[in-house]
Amino acid sequence: MYVMKSIIRIVLLLIGVLSIGCYEDKGNYDLVDYNKIEEVVLIPSLSNTAVYLGDTVRIAVSMQYKYPDRDTITGFEYVWKENWEGDTLGTSRVLEYVPGEAKSYTFYLHVREVATGITTRFSFSARVSSPYSSGWLIASQRDGKPCLTFIRRDSRRNESNQLVYFWTDFVNIYDELHPGTPLNSNALVGVSTYPVSYSGDEVIVFHERGEGEILKGTDFSKMMNLKDDFMGGVLPSGFEPVSFARGGYCDYLLGKDGEVYWRSNLNGSSLAHETSFMDVPLYFPGGSVIDYFVDMRIYEAEFTLMHDKLKNRIVGCANSFSSSGMWNGKMLNITNTYRPEEFVNILNMEGYKLIYCGDYTNGKSFVNILKEESSGNYIYQNFKLMGYTADFSVTEANREIFAGSELISDNTVFFRLRRSSYLYFGEGSKLYFYDVNSKKVKLYTDFGSGNITQIIQDAEGTRVGITLDNGNFYLCEAVSTNVLGAENPGAVGILHHLSGLGDIKNMVWKWGTYSSMIGNRY
Fold it and tell me: Which InterPro entries match (predicted)?
């Protein structure tokens, strides 16, 4: 009797193990002769697993069975879920589903054999991107109202199966998407954009009189007012925000009056607006009036530089996206040991006017264009900032008379491409480029009218976007030897043109996600 009870227990135990194995798809079905699915293959020609938000994800698969001669049409049931036990998305072998969020998805196909009740699960990935993730974002005052324009790069295959890029314009994108909730009616000042996670970003729209709105980057919908990032939802008295710099564990907000406020964040790589900006502005010895944040790779540099026009110097604060150390937000201690004839000291540029400052590698190698007031000469100089946390030294510094001095003025617009040898600059309607290796300047093109107001590069650093004060935007190839070596680069290098944008306030590159920013990609 004892032996018989033991045998019964063992049989019941085996049945229990078998049931759990089938449900959890552990593949231990040796005791049941079922029509095992030997292989599942995605059919690329019938599937679409990389789509824009609002489009349909389609996953079509082919299956190979252990017993292909059995009924494989009505003999199986199919259920698609996003999670193992989530809501049912579809009940056919082919999934057709319109996701409601821009992110990476894992879809699970539950295949149940009717005869045995055995269910096998398979997973498939899909990427749903925002149609407005990465691209050029232009803020302008158009027809008396604030206007946001987004320009996206798209691609197709030509008859020779070569990849061809083209650009799609979304003029006045906010009003097109959200006609019932217009932007603040105060005149537009500009726009800033920054990643807040590895799947999304935000946009700040600055208006006159201190008004500001924070938009969700995936669809430009309103999230909150900028003032809500201050204690009690009130801006400091007289403070009118005009620019923002994302620093990971701390951020900086610049006002029209030259004051900078900052906040400490709880997470360096995911901004959730959980903390408020301090109610006391940053202080630099001797006082300061900050007029702009230096254009740089803050993520890699782990500090943010600013120009103080009161003392004519470069100042900055430490920050990090990876460490919440106590030095975040601390004023940089920069040491310079170079003599004036070797290098114009960025800590005291008395006698010089700073025309341009920007980084061109990993956020720690910089180029300056300065005008020597006594001689009228324009100076080109390079330098590095090397150090750790908040202590840095000027290294590898040099200066020279700029080779294109006779072509520029105090109003010339500059941009040094990152990870290439070209400095682009615009004087009036003319666009030039300077090769820092050969020290030669060449005219790229003359747009014919208007004055160039801004030049910035795209994600890959291979193209430049140019805005003019007559409401025009141009996109140009920036590093192609075939273009730059041509007699008239502009005749073959202008890729895209958009006009009628009104009074353009500024242009930014919209990364969309941290992944794109870190990898310098679309």
Answer: PKD-like
